[in-house]
Write a structure and sequence with these properties.
This protein is mostly helical and about 140 residues long. The chain has helices at about 10-15, 25-30, 35-40, 45-55, 55-60, 65-75, 80-85, 90-95, 100-105, 115-120. Helix content is about 55%, strand content about 0%.
Length: about 140
């Protein structure tokens, strides 16, 4: 029986890095964004949401989050937070704290307004043209 050739997991995951608008949540991203995600999860408790809303900067200063991460959180720059290892499902706690629906918050990560984003999704989502592997020419 012949053995199937294996590919290094890091090489395999790196193949996804060239897909426009796509960030694969890897173990490396999870480690990088650990404190951002723990902060976001803290917002599940009403008392933490109240403290955060009362003074966002002071609350963030209690966390071991980089200055870049704090800036991205304060600016609600979700794409930058994803790049810094934020997980969209954890960041949803921040969306909710801000009174945003998941779809409304995600629309800010695109070039669309929320009504345009909603319409695009109702019409089947974004076209795969130009949204696949760059090196693959798709």
């Amino acid at each position: 029986m012949s053995k199937k050739p294996t590919q290094n997991i890091h090489e395999y995951l790196a193949e996804f890095e060239d897909i426009p608008g796509t960030r694969v949540y890897t173990a490396a991203r999870a480690r990088k964004g650990y404190h951002i995600n723990q902060f976001a999860m803290s917002l599940m408790k009403a008392e933490n949401r109240e403290r955060f809303k009362a003074d966002e900067k002071a609350y963030l200063d209690e966390w071991d989050i980089s200055d870049e991460g704090k800036e991205a959180l304060l600016a609600r720059d979700y794409n930058r937070l994803l790049d810094l290892g934020g997980n969209v499902y954890f960041l949803a706690k921040l969306f909710s704290t801000d009174g945003l629906s998941f779809a409304e918050a995600v629309s800010t990560m695109t070039e669309y307004t929320f009504p345009e984003y909603r319409e695009m999704m109702l019409n089947g989502g974004r076209s795969p043209e130009g949204n696949r592997s760059i090196k693959g020419g798709y």
